[in-house]
Amino acid sequence: MLATGALAGCAGITTTTDASFNSRDGLDAGWPFDVAAPAWIPDQVRKVHVSGHDGTGEVIVYVDTSAGLPEGACLEAPRSTAPAVTTGWSPNWETPPEQVWVCASWEVTPMANGWFGWTAPGV
Q: What pTM does this model have?
């Protein structure tokens, strides 16, 4: 499932793309963003939701899985950024967690049924 929409803003128009996938293979085949699909997503997933602002590199991902992060793919560290995209399925935090897993250019935190991650350019 892929949906797009446009939001008017002071600096112009931002297009947001949302998609859902039922497998890691489906995610890899249908990843809709300019940034690479995250390598930290486990192979065993029940559902993957993604949303992002096209052309900005700002993407969030929720992975419904009981699997852990791939061995050696991430390091625990203090959070350096916060998600730039929000949706109905993203966490409703006043403040994101202070400690996260840094996985290449992503920051990731465990959720009740999986993982939530966001792009963290410059990390």
A: 0.86
